[in-house]
Amino acid sequence: MGTCQTICGGHLEAMIVQLIATNRPGSNSGKVAAHVAEIYAAKGTPLEVVDLHNLPPEIFNPASYAEKPASFASMQESMTKATGILVVTPEYNGGFPGVFKYFIDMLKFPETFAGKPFAFVGLSAGGGGAVRPVEQFTTLVHYLRGIVYPATVNIPGINNHLDEAGRIKSPEIIERLEKQADGFAKFVEKTGKK
Ligand SMILES: Cc1cc2nc3c(=O)[nH]c(=O)nc-3n(C[C@H](O)[C@H](O)[C@H](O)COP(=O)(O)O)c2cc1C
């Protein structure tokens, strides 16, 4: 893949959006996502980050169901442009964060999602590794008319796998993330909506 992020050679270049699916301050999901972004950068695979920590407060006004605030437009635009979506989600009470579903509900349906591949990195403090959140969200992807990339990276016991700088220290996990990055980039190229 090249580095062009708009129109290349007459077709829209693949643009993967990494979606950080929580707004919890200091979240481990944000730390893992930062390391994953480094992995994509090292491979020269363009990645745009949409981080729910940056959701504008106005979006939580109930009036937003009818009319989106102007401050939400850039997030909608990034999601619209995405040709693939890499979700980094924590496990909260056996599911994905409520704010993640709220974000999905604020986006235009179905054009934001239809025909787009979704991949997942899931993490939890406990032993589940966000298997349940990813399976639950997979059901939504089908409804949203997206396509699920089957190789998920689940990380249980996340607090044992980060160093003091918040980077992943386990070579085995990094290897799985590298493999997923290679596979998902190819999957988006072949399968994704252009
Ligand atoms: C509201 C909430 C619910 C949680 N529920 C679970 C859970 O069901 N299972 C689990 O293993 N960890 C649970 N955790 C811990 C998270 O998995 C842990 O904080 C992990 O670092 C990922 O979330 P983070 O990105 O917010 O840091 C929960 C954390 C929060 C804030």
Summarize the structure.
With 194 residues, this protein is of the alpha/beta class.
Question: Could you explain the architecture of this structure?
Answer:
It is built from five helices and eight strands; from the N terminus they run βββαβαβαβαββα. By secondary structure, the protein is α/β, with parallel strands linked by helices. The protein has a single domain (19-191), classed as Rossmann fold. The longest helix has 21 residues, at 171-191. Mean pLDDT is 93; it is low at 1-11. Bound molecules: flavin mononucleotide (FMN). The site of flavin mononucleotide has 16 residues, from helix 1.
Classify the oligomer.
single chain
CATH topology name:
Rossmann fold
- CATH architecture verdict: 3-Layer(aba) Sandwich
Our count of helices gives 5
Please report the distance between the alpha carbons of the first and last residues. Answer: 14 Å
What's the layout of helices and strands?
Layout: E1 7-8, E2 11-12, E3 16-20, H1 28-42, E4 47-51, H2 73-81, E5 84-90, H3 98-106, E6 117-123, H4 131-143, E7 147-148, E8 153-155, H5 171-191
Parallel strand pairs: 3-4, 3-5, 5-6, 6-7, 6-8
Antiparallel strand pairs: 1-2
Bound molecules: flavin mononucleotide.
Kindly list the characteristics that best describe this protein:
binds flavin mononucleotide, two-stranded antiparallel ribbon, alpha/beta, 194 residues, 17% strand, single chain, globular, 8 strands, six-stranded parallel beta sheet, disordered N terminus
